[in-house]
UniProtKB/TrEMBL annotation:
Superkingdom to which the source organism belongs: Bacteria
Gene3D superfamilies to which the protein is assigned, alphabetical: Glutaredoxin
Signal peptide bounds: 1-22
Protein keywords: Signal
Protein name as it appears in the record: Thioredoxin
SUPFAM superfamilies tied to this protein: Thioredoxin-like (SSF52833)
Species per Swiss-Prot/TrEMBL record: Aquibium carbonis
Domain Thioredoxin-like fold: 50-133
Length: 198
């Protein structure tokens, strides 16, 4: 092999060996994705905006210094397969679990991000909340949610939750755990993942 070819092989190998790039951190201390949507955090308006774009609304509660949030951003939301699916099908809005930005709940009450987290009963970060296609009249966002994912999971559990919601698995009667197991078995049969992956 020539010296130039050897150098090219070495550079390519070094490129693939690099760790994932760090995700930008905003002034609020939260990790950021450039494709997240910034809104006025009016739940009914956000659900309608997502619907008008042919998407579903998902909100993510995070906090400064959360290592699981960092992992979600660096390992999951930066994975092209995961990122592209979510971007195409969901409007993601980020909430700071201890933030003071104003939030309007579906019942019309005015809250802050932190009082919304308390009112809705969310205590883990990250927590991703999936809202219905059409905003119900009254009630809270937590009552309207079709699914909630508390915590960070492996790639396939994470992605499959988004797919299950997008495919309205909550209406079909197929519990998420059964859906996820079915998809995992299909992926294993295709040779796309090993025994330990989920």
């Amino acid at each position: 092999m020539s010296r130039i070819a050897s150098l090219v092989v070495t550079l390519v190998a070094a490129t693939f060996a690099l760790p994932a790039l760090a995700v930008e951190i905003g002034g609020d201390g939260l990790h950021k994705q450039e494709w997240f949507t910034i809104t006025f955090r009016d739940m009914a308006e956000d659900i309608e905006q997502a619907r008008s774009e042919g998407k579903r609304l998902a909100i993510t509660f995070e906090q400064r210094g959360c290592i699981y949030c960092r992992d979600m951003h660096e390992k999951l939301l930066s994975d092209p397969e995961v990122r592209d699916y979510i971007r195409e099908n969901f409007m993601m809005v980020q909430y700071n679990m201890f933030g003071d930005e104003e939030v309007t709940d579906l019942d019309g009450s005015i809250l802050t991000e932190k009082t919304a987290a308390r009112k809705w009963g969310y205590v883990f970060t990250p927590t991703i909340v999936f809202l219905p296609e059409v905003a119900p009249e009254g009630g809270t966002a937590a009552q309207a949610a079709v699914a909630t994912m508390p915590g960070a999971f492996g790639k396939w559990t994470f992605l499959n939750m988004f797919k299950w919601v997008n495919e309205k698995g909550y209406e079909s009667g197929e519990h998420f755990q059964h859906y996820h197991a079915r998809i995992i078995n299909e992926l294993r049969a295709e040779g796309r993942l090993g025994e330990g992956e989920n």
